[in-house]
Amino acid sequence: MVSDxxxxxxxxxxxxxxxxxxxxxxxxxxxxxxxxxxxxxxFLEEVSFAYVDGKPDKFDSDIREIVGEQPFKFRxxxxxxxxxxxxxxxxxxxxxxxxxxxxxxFSQVVGKPVFFSTICCNSHLTTDHELSxxxxxxLQCAAVKLQ
Length: 147
Known about the structure:
mainly alpha; 7 helices; 10% strand
């Protein structure tokens, strides 16, 4: 059943021009990102190692229970949609340049390819490759069911 209540969608942020200028106008881009977004940097480092180490997460386990075995490696964690870290992750991962820089860096740090995405409201997804629509759609639908 479809509700008659209008839905208000909140636009996803990407890095604003002032922040992008601070990141890309000079110096080492990764150092600039680390300095401007220290909490997001630490989070991405932690989820990268947790992904490689197969560290359990309740949300991830619940997703796997719904979608079953997948032919690719992934790990999904849920974020509070109102905290600064979630906004910072959206800014960083919504900007293709910073996302690619971070994926390259953390892949080197953990010694395996990692790909970052935001998914379902405010969840964070780490995978072993850039997912296709056919791969990500079941994860998205499962995450929505858990909200």
